[in-house]
């Protein structure tokens, strides 16, 4: 044995020290095991405390606020006015054509990231406010003539003077979406009584279906890929209708399993029967047990429609029979059918899925190694995700009807580490107080000046629930690195998506009126560069739009410095309780026009 100075030590009473040293060793091991157990059980737990209560203030911890050097960000060139970094057509040639994989998310590497401000189109104006925006938008805000010329005979939209008008037509409903949805409601009575609240529209066109459903109490995520001409998602968001860029190709959509009450495809050109029905398997995964899948267009009503589809009646009959066979194998049943609309319903219980265990069954049941809710760059697998038998109150027949379900504790909160009914109720109450305070700080919140809202790092959708009576909708974002609380958001009758804020969001520039974050940099600054997150916020925020940034006081100076470099005006405000550890920044993006600088 040696002392810490390296000199040899004597052992005058070796035996007398053996027992105390052994006891000390046992005590230290026990203490280490106890502390380790506490750490492991708590590290993933969702705290219901406010950030202000868990983040040390500079005064208490003697840590000075983060300071960064002031930078004025340059303008991007005008050809970046519709820049979508992770779905950029300029980079498509780098990726394969198989199953249109080039249209999936492919984000640029760090060294190719833009550090400039995306300019608005020439002649850009503040968007028309809701509800007028559902029927019209400024042409210069979304200056795409291609879709106007190609779809004018189907009444998707038409250009009149300085505006695009949206008559409510579509490929399968050229005479208007209202009559189309009326027929759909006759086939699905659950659309009328609050049973169906959330829906997804794949291949959404200009989102007329989702827009019509808003008046019927159904909140729809309109989904379409980025393309060079149609700009479907950009039209939807300019109208004030929820939408996101995405494509059913080789990876799961960024939603949890058993999320939507209804899915819809109106001649969306998705080859449902190809590749072993892999796209139908994804619809099955994201549909709630007892949920509905609605299809209009080929091969439905092929007996009367086949002549207009550049095919033969035999081919369309075969395709319909194959579609029906695949859906039956996935435990869908034909619910109803009339004219051009067919409706299938996903099984409400798991009794049907026992057949998937047969050796020759196709598609087979997914094994336990595949997490049902894993949906961020998760590749498709040709198997059926069978709903957990623990899900009993989340099936269509059992979930509370809208609007009661908004404030009922979802059963899937128990799947969240640390989640409980009391945590849910606390979160619900907390956000009612916070939203009331926000409206004092930002009177535009609750008026028709704010329509498209994003909660950038929600937990249970509390902010969205607190403003549910205002003329707005909220895209609830759950970090792909955070605890999986998105099923709870959907079970409440709200909508959202998974996302990683180290990357660009799946939307066009200038698509949100308000961005809200709560402790995002506290949670993610160790992974994501704050500068790029704020530049992404600038890209997706509309000119004259707002950001409510709720953060630890440690980050406030740095955020303000970057915001000034983006031409934002910000002011600091106290939280509703006036604590020093946490502050609120109310920021507004300036409307400016491109000076036609060269590409950066």
Automatic annotation (TrEMBL):
Gene3D superfamilies according to UniProt: Vaccinia Virus protein VP39
EC category: transferase
Sorted UniProt keywords: Glycoprotein, Membrane, Methyltransferase, Signal-anchor, Transferase, Transmembrane, Transmembrane helix
UniProt cross-references to InterPro entries, sorted A to Z: Put_SAM_MeTrfase, SAM-dependent_MTases_sf
GO biological process: methylation
Keyword Transmembrane helix: yes
SUPFAM superfamilies (UniProt xref): S-adenosyl-L-methionine-dependent methyltransferases (SSF53335)
Membrane topology: Single-pass type II membrane protein
Subcellular location: Endomembrane system; Membrane
Residues passing through the membrane, by range: 21-39
GO molecular-function terms, A-Z: methyltransferase activity
Superkingdom per UniProt: Eukaryota
GO cellular component, one term: membrane
Enzyme Commission number(s) from the entry: 2.1.1.-
Pfam families reported for this sequence: Methyltransf_29 (PF03141)
PANTHER family registered for this protein in UniProt: METHYLTRANSFERASE PMT21-RELATED, SAM-DEPENDENT METHYLTRANSFERASE
Family statement: Belongs to the methyltransferase superfamily.
Protein's recorded name: Methyltransferase
Organism, as annotated: Populus alba x Populus x berolinensis
């Amino acid at each position: 044995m040696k002392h810490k100075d390296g000199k040899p030590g004597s052992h005058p009473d070796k035996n007398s020290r053996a027992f105390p040293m052994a006891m000390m060793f046992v005590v230290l091991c026990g203490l280490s095991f106890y502390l380790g157990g506490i750490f492991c059980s708590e590290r993933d737990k969702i705290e219901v405390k406010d950030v202000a209560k868990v983040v040390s203030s500079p005064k208490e911890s003697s840590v000075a606020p983060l300071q960064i050097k002031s930078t004025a960000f340059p303008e991007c060139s005008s050809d970046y006015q519709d820049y979508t970094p992770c779905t950029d057509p300029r980079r498509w040639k780098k990726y394969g054509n198989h199953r249109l994989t080039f249209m999936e998310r492919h984000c640029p590497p760090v060294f190719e990231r833009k550090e400039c401000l995306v300019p608005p189109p020439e002649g850009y104006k503040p968007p028309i406010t809701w509800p007028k925006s559902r029927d019209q938008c400024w042409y210069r805000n979304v200056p795409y003539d291609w879709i106007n010329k190609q779809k004018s005979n189907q009444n998707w939209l038409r250009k009149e003077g300085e505006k695009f008008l949206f008559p409510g037509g579509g490929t399968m409903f050229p005479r208007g979406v209202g009559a189309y949805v009326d027929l759909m409601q006759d086939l699905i009575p659950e659309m009328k009584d609050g049973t169906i609240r959330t829906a997804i529209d794949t291949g959404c066109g200009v989102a007329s279906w989702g827009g019509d459903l808003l008046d019927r109490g159904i909140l729809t995520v309109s989904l379409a890929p980025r393309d060079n001409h149609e700009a479907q998602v950009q039209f939807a968001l300019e109208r004030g209708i929820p939408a996101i860029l995405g494509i059913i190709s080789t990876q799961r959509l960024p939603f949890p399993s058993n999320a939507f009450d209804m899915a819809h495809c109106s001649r969306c050109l998705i080859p449902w029967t190809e590749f072993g029905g892999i796209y139908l398997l994804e619809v099955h995964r994201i549909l709630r047990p007892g949920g509905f899948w609605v299809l209009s267009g080929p091969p439905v009503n092929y007996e009367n429609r086949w002549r207009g589809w550049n095919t033969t009646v035999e081919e369309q009959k075969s395709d319909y029979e194959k579609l029906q066979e695949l859906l039956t194998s996935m435990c869908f049943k034909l619910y109803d059918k009339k004219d051009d609309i067919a409706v299938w319903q996903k099984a409400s219980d798991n009794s049907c899925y026992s057949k998937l265990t047969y050796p020759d069954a196709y598609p087979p049941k997914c094994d336990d190694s595949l997490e049902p809710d894993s949906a961020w760059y998760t590749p498709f697998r040709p198997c059926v995700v069978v709903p957990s038998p623990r899900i009993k109150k989340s099936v269509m027949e059992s979930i509370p009807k809208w609007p009661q379900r908004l404030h009922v504790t979802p059963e899937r909160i128990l799947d969240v580490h640390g989640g409980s009914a009391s945590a849910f109720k606390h979160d619900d109450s907390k956000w009612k107080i916070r939203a009331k305070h926000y409206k004092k700080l930002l009177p535009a919140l609750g008026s028709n000046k704010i329509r498209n809202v994003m909660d950038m790092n929600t937990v249970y959708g509390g902010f969205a629930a607190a403003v549910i009576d205002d003329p707005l909708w909220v895209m609830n974002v759950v970090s792909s690195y955070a605890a999986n609380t998105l099923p709870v958001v959907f079970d409440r009758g709200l909508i959202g998506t998974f996302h990683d804020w180290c990357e660009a969001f799946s939307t066009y520039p200038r698509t949100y009126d308000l961005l809200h974050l709560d402790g995002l940099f506290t949670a993610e600054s160790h992974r994501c560069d704050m500068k790029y997150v704020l530049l992404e916020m600038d890209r997706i925020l509309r000119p004259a739009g707002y950001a409510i940034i709720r953060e630890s006081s440690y980050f406030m100076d740095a955020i303000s410095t970057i915001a000034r470099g983006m031409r934002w005006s910000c002011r600091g405000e106290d939280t509703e309780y006036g604590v020093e550890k946490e502050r609120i920044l109310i920021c507004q993006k300036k409307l400016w026009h491109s000076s036609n600088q060269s590409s950066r």
